[in-house]
Amino acid sequence: MDWVKTFYEAQNEWFGVYLGPVEESHRERALLLNKMTDSSAKKVLELGAGGGQTAIALAELGHEVSMIELLEESVWHAQKLSHQMKVEIAIQQGDFYTFAYKEQFDLICYFDSFGIGTDEDQRNLLRRMAAWLKPNGSIVIEVGATWYWAGIANGRTMDLGACFRQYNFDVLEARLVDSWWRKDDPNTVVRQFLRCYTPVDFQLLLEGTGLQLMDIQAGGRVDYEQMEFIKEANLEEAMTYYVKLSKEDI
């Protein structure tokens, strides 16, 4: 997982990916969490929360929100943004693969980058999340859909203005390889590697974690002809899907 910090720092440096305002997409994500769980006020933890945009959107809905983020610059942005918007969130800089939360939460969420490392890395993280979860709480995770990244997206290159982005699929490891390089420095390429799962593979991943699958919701897809993001898609077309987990019945 040695690529992680380098990749996300480059995204901030080149595009300020995690340094923007709270947008409609963040509020839609917060509403999705309410839909998948319920709208009652909760104690929420967001992992890998970037610049705090979704965490702030959740706090706007009345939740008590904590977030943890690896990058110092993104943490600074979350602090500044929450102050500007007069929204209180608990912000922690750190690595959620090693950071030890002593408290428990009603809801734990993780978007965009689940799948870092090996299956065992995911299981270790899921076990940690189970330990942070209250007995009747829920976990919502956005998971990369194997069929999408191995199919329509595989080999796609996009012009993002200052740089190019290319998707490839590593068949042997069943993971998305997401490459970015600047037009003025094409020899410097940064990549992220995210393990993708079918629902049945994700179900197998849960074995021994103390968690059980309760629900699946399809995410969106990209229309590459129009270069437009379609918010709602059928599960078989979606680029990601959301799983709702709870602690196993004893």
Question: Would you give an account of this structure?
Answer:
The protein is α/β, with parallel strands linked by helices. It is built from 7 helices and 13 strands. The chain has a 7-stranded mixed beta sheet, with helices on both faces. Strands 6-7-8-9 form a 4-stranded antiparallel beta sheet. Helix 2 (24-36) crosses helix 3 (53-60). The model has no long low-confidence stretch (mean pLDDT 95).
Features of the shown structure:
250 residues; alpha/beta; 4-stranded antiparallel β-sheet; 13 strands; 29% helix
Structure summary:
29% of the residues lie in helices and 34% in strands. The chain has 250 residues and is α/β, with parallel strands linked by helices. The strands form three sheets. A seven-stranded mixed β-sheet has the order 3-2-1-4-5-13-10, sandwiched between helices.
